[in-house]
Amino acid sequence: MKEIDAIIIHCSATKAKQDIGKKEITQMHVARGFKTIGYNFVIRLDGTVETGRSLEIDGAHCNTAGFSGMSYNKHSIGICYVGGLDAKGKPADTRTPEQKKALTELIRQLLKEYPNIKEILGHRDTSPDLDGDGEVEPCEFIKSCPCFDAKEEYSPLLCAA
């Protein structure tokens, strides 16, 4: 089994209330040239967790390098919640209460299964530190995904694991 040391949270960049799942995201990713879905898990609007890409295969959700200097795809778990855009198509935290609950439960489960996880980040947190001050500020985000501060919200779970 490969070493997993990070969880990266994503959004599907779909409008609020647009309910899609693994099947539709797989189709979108294949159309972009992927072999299959890039995420390991998808959380639908009702909180249903769908299993995507096998953890035995490198992900296709975040090419940025982590602690190890390797692409996060090689050593992280990618979780995508459905949503991330408001009704006008602007970035927004559109998670339903059911998605928030399912995401917390899934992260807790993964922390038990993969005790070497050291960080939980939003995709935006993996943007490069353009000014070299050791912190990726909002003005440096390449994208808004997942449209909320996943690092702040979920990193406390690392201490509870």
Could you explain how this protein is built, in words?
There is one protein chain. The chain is an alpha/beta fold. It has one domain (6-160): Lysozyme-like, CATH 3.40.80.10. The protein is 25% helix and 16% strand. It is built from five helices and seven strands; from the N terminus they run ββαββαββαβαα. It has a five-stranded mixed beta sheet with strand order 4-3-5-1-7. A two-stranded parallel sheet has the order 2-6. Strand 3 (41-43) and strand 4 form a beta hairpin. It is globular. The mean pLDDT is 86.
Uncertain ranges: none
Tell me the CATH architecture: 3-Layer(aba) Sandwich
Separation of termini? 21 Å
For the biggest β-sheet, the strand order reads 4-3-5-1-7
Number of helices: 5
Report the count of strand segments. Answer: 7
Order of helices and strands: EEHEEHEEHEHH
What fraction of the residues are assigned to beta strands by DSSP?
15-25%
